[in-house]
Amino acid sequence: MKELQIKFILNNRKGIINIDYTTNNDVIESGFDMLSHLGMDINMCIGYPTLHAYITDFEATGYRRYCGWIQILKCDYFDSENDISPLYTKFFIDGDSQNNSPFFAYGYPAELYDAPCNNLGDNGKLVWTAYTYLVEMPTHITKNTISFVAGFKWGYTEWDELGKRKVTIMPIQELSYSSWNNNLNLLKEKFPNFSYR
To answer: Cα 37 from chain centroid?
Structure first.
């Protein structure tokens, strides 16, 4: 298991993001056994990454603890496993679009769990990258503005080789405000009902 800690300040209070990042080796531990009713082979999840991000040592109390996670996915699709230039790239906001919300999770404080699996489709190779941001929530106090607090990048590459799925997991990396700023146009386009900072 790889672990990362990121210090942050939210509402003038210090805290730490703890990130547990590992290979999915157990369908029960990762919760995929709950998805068997979908008709998928739940054992396909083995070898993909799992990520759990949670907040500790947070000096805030009450409403000051309110925060959220926004996750933006970059999917580079390749014709074959050996290609270095993608055929095409797609960006997704991994939120709740049906309810017009960009948030992957939110709470007092918010916690995040993700275990992506089997997104290759008919492509030769996929590089799946998640840009995951802890954010200040939009409220009347913030004038409906979502603000960057901290962030990190993680993901994996998947392809088929001799009829067998192969997966390599990317190293996790802390992100600065500039990464968030690079994704603001996408957020403004998909969720224009909020302001961003």
So the answer is: 25
The chain-wide mean pLDDT, for the chain, equals 96
Q: Are 145 and 195 within 8 A, CB to CB?
A: yes
- 191 sits in which H/E element: none
**Dist CA 134 CA 80 (whole Å):** 35
CB distance 76 to 161 below 8 Å: no
Exposure string for 120-152, b = 16+ CB within 10 A, e = fewer = beebebbbbbbbbbbbbbbeeeeeeebbbbbbb
- Please give the distance of CA 184 from its chain centroid, rounded to a whole number: 16
pLDDT tens per residue across span 103-133 = 999 999 999 999 999 999 999 999 999 999 9
- Spatial distance between the Cα atoms of 197 and 180, rounded to a whole number of angstroms: 9
Strands 195-196 and 145-161, sheet pairing: parallel
Give pLDDT, residue 1: 76
The pLDDT score that the predictor gives to residue 145 is 98
Q: What is the pLDDT of residue 40?
A: 85
Are 132 and 74 spatial neighbours (Cβ–Cβ below 8 Å)? no
Provide the 3-class DSSP secondary structure of residue 30.
coil
